[in-house]
Amino acid sequence: MTTKRDNQDLLSSLSPAQRAMVLKALKEEALKAQKPPIVHRATGLDPVPLSLAQSRLWLFSQLRPGSPAYNEVSALRMEGSLDVRVLERSIQEIMNRHEALRTTFSTVEGKPVQVISPSHATTLQVVNLSGLSEHMRSAELQRLTEEEARKPFDLTQGPLLRTTLFLLGEQRSVLMVTAHHIVLDGWSIGVFQRELAELYKAFSQGSPSSLDALPIQYADYALWQKQWLRDDVLKRQLDYWVRQLSDMPPLLQLPFAQPRPETETFAGATEYFKLDKQLSDALAALSRKANTSLFMTLLAGFQTLIHRYTNQTDIPVGTVVANREQPELEQLIGFFVNTLVMRGRLHDNPSFNQVLERVRDTALTAYEHQEIPFDHVVEALQPERSLSYNPLFQVMFILQNTPEHAFALPGLTLSSLQLGSVTAKYDLTLSMEETPRGLTGHWEYNSDLFDAATIRRMSGHLETLLRAIVQAPEKPISELPLLTEPEKQQLLVEWNQTDAHFPRDTCIQHIFEAQAERTPEAIALEQGEQRLGYREVNQRANQVAHLLRERGVGPGALVGVCLQRSVDMVVAMLGVMKAGGTYVPMDPSYPAQRLSYMLEDSNVAVLLTHSQLRSRFSLDDEKVVRLDADWSDISRRSPTNPAPLAGPGDLAYVIYTSGSTGTPKGVRVSHRNLVHSTSARWAYYREPVTSFLLLSSFAFDSSVAGIYWTLTQGGRLILPEGEGAPDLSKLHEVISTRQVSHLLCIPSVYSLVMQNAQPHDLSSLRTVIVAGEPCPAQLVERHLEVAGSATLYNEYGPTEATVWSTVHKLDAKPPRANVSIGRPIANTRIYILDAHQQPVPVGVPGELHVGGEGVTHGYLHRRELTEARFIPNPFSGRMGDRLYKTGDLARYSPDGLIEFMGRIDEQVKIRGYRIEPGEIEALLQQHPAVLEAVVITRDDGQGNKRLVAYLAVDRARNASASELRDFALEHLPGFSVPSAFVLLEQLPRLPNGKVDRKALPAQEEPREENANTATSDWSDLQRTIATLWKETIGVQAASLDDNFFKVGGDSLSIIRVFNRLRDVVGKNIAITDLFKHPTIRTLSEFLEK
């Protein structure tokens, strides 16, 4: 809490020239203000209006009746002989002295007022715990103090202060004081304790009170404030804050352990910490050297921590000022503190010294404009309103430095008792205090959002950061460490201990040849009625290889393969590798333009295809081999294995993936990459492949997993019949008929399989792998119901890291909607890094980087792109070791599992809020009628982005767009609810089965009315709401979609609308309903339901 003493401390640290400039500015500001004295009000003026600060808490009590969020709690441990009657008399005298403690609140003509009782008898509640054992006594004391702290106050009924004395033994007791913040602040607790000491001493000696009479009371201050803080004074201060806080991001994206609830509950908990004397002294020394206060240095450190946790550069942090500039206010009990927003600007990766300089400038100007109540600032800025978080800021920093006073009671030894908070006013509050032994502090956190482990880690990171700051404040803040050495060891080493043996000096075709020799008669390929054994497949591939060598194919030569899913497709792939070449798969379903680009970019030496596809290519005949029409010629080649030409470091295949610019890019995959990827499957999946159903197009690397995993284990590779994508509605029949044991597909395809299947249809399955898309939790639940005999796995991996990099076994219902992608596979290392290549803490999102044997050779003919995405591994001592930057956002959980959070480039901002569409999709898919969900952004035609949800729904459930919007409103903050819901039979798909986002229809759900429909077409209820708006805020709504807060409404006026509307509609509604439905349209729709 900042006081005048802070400013004096700061001035004493400045140079003479700086001090003169600051004093000149402060003097000019003081002359502008010319505050009149506060005088005792005349009798007969009761009831008194609320102070501006009280108005905010009164409003909160109306919005959240029964909430204990603003209960102020303190406790004193007392040892010695206590006179309970004297203690109670002392407390009563304090009540008599301070009108604030005898104040309740009511409304007169719809406006809140203070009602001051001339007297109020207090009762000291005494609870005797002395008969319990030490252990039981301690537990019961904690339970009772937490229960007392949670007990709400009714502002219309006094007293708003409760005192409880817990007797722990003959000479031990605890005094607990609980008050509503509207009548008492942190400074007031010190006043209360000081007066209690004086009064107890006097009364225990039989003397009267020695305290001087109070010249004014809190109500006098409230009246004075109303008179002074208006007109030019109000405008000058308000103008400053509007300039200072405009265009600020509405929400800090802290890494929560749980999703933010729709309505804030203010449930809280506390975590305590200490900084040693050496570090505390070093922080003080740095403050003096930088000509700042300790508060500013700690605030700058806190903002740096939040920046590193959120990757945001605009960091608003709330703080409080005592707001007792006049000497006569220092002895009063009451609610004086005001909230200021300190906006930290950490763009351009500044040094900490630069951050500190910015914080100092911000704080000094903020102190000059500290009198205006926070609520006035909120109303002027009109931020997006939400019941799920605090406006303008969600984290607070406080340095407790209220005046210390010697506090003693005769015959008693006193000490403060730490009571962990059971409420949290904000997402996170960091409070620190200077003590002779060093800085102490505690985190008050919202327990709906954070868990204790997360806060303990954050506390450790703050200490690590502060130690780095005092050692090198000139360093860029990105280079200041957060992690402790044990954390770095865990993240970089322990969770990457994946080294395992694999046949690194061979190629996949040689492993296949050995398998064909072991099981020559076993069925290798099956499509419809066609079956080929291992010997026959190997011989055909050998014949293709000998032909290709005749055509000059060897290491370094690229061979195009454009075939439908068929046995020839597999034979061609093996034949190219046996020849020593590199195959380039080309899906015949691709547009001609894409195929032409791939052919030109790869400059293939030969193209393997079928006659019906030949016309799609303009290559000369000598470069084209038709495996059907030319087979009689090919079959004259030797069926024996050709002598090896390619080595492990040569390329096995080049697969083209979609580029962000729309131009495909070829990923170069070596034989060692492929052998590593396949052998890792042998090691991880203990269930051998007996029959694998290949659903992927061979132009996607997911096909690589099934083909080579199966054919190197002697399994049967089943190829669906027909051209193009298989009929997804009948896949369960294929699985049952062909007795498929292993399946790999994207989650949305597997969802369709289970939608149509009965348990007996899937009884042959032993291993099911989903990959390529986020796996929804309900898919896992459905799998356990329908195909529980099979084990389900969730894989993750980019093409650039050879098919898969992490895997997670899903044998139970996931604890979160976002299913983990698991841990790294063999010989693979995963690093989650920030934008400056620094490892991020557990729970903090960063870009996922992949290292190890799966990292490929980069992109074909794209040197600059390869260098940008394949970077040196800074955590490896091996020469040439590289990391692939995936562009995917992920974070570690405390147990080392990895959570995929979407593409970095798919994160969007809507009205300043950073939104992850994947989270919204996962939530919408929890609705029983939603089979699949995709959320994208569209332009509204006026340059603004809006969210649109496309949903594949079960028509049998008759879900409407309105119902799904209501579902979203119940579970998501308002800013992340899509503005339109488009219901489809099914979502459009790409050849690999993924959703084709570009093919989603442009049309959106039709509105029942145009936003500017003439008022004559409005319903009676809509006109009633509009009339109430006009009578309350003086504004006539022009549209059903006008937002109450955007057209001039505020928190106080919405209460007046609520009171009148409740009488008009005759329904039991809550005031929070008006916040959730701030337009005439949405409110009328809600009320009509």
Bin the strand percentage: 15-25%
Number of domains: 6
Give helix % range: 25-40%
At the fold tier of CATH, the topology name of the largest domain is Chloramphenicol Acetyltransferase
Computed over alpha carbons, the radius of gyration is 36 Å
Let me know the largest β-sheet: 9 strands, mixed
User: What is the level-2 CATH architecture name of the largest domain?
Assistant: 2-Layer Sandwich
Strand order of the largest sheet: 16-15-24-23-25-26-27-28-29
User: Helical element count?
Assistant: 31
Number of strands: 39
Indicate the CATH class of the largest domain.
Alpha Beta
- Judged by helices, strands and strand pairing, the structural class is alpha/beta
Would you identify the regions where 5 or more consecutive residues have pLDDT less than 50? Answer: 1005-1012
Average pLDDT confidence is: 89
Shape: elongated
Keywords: Ligase, Phosphopantetheine, Phosphoprotein
Protein name: Long-chain-fatty-acid--CoA ligase
GO molecular function: ligase activity; phosphopantetheine binding
Domain Carrier: 1016-1089
Give descriptors for this structure.
1089 residues; alpha/beta; Chloramphenicol Acetyltransferase; Rossmann fold; 6 domains; 9-stranded mixed β-sheet; 5-stranded mixed β-sheet; 31 helices; 39 strands; 34% helix; elongated
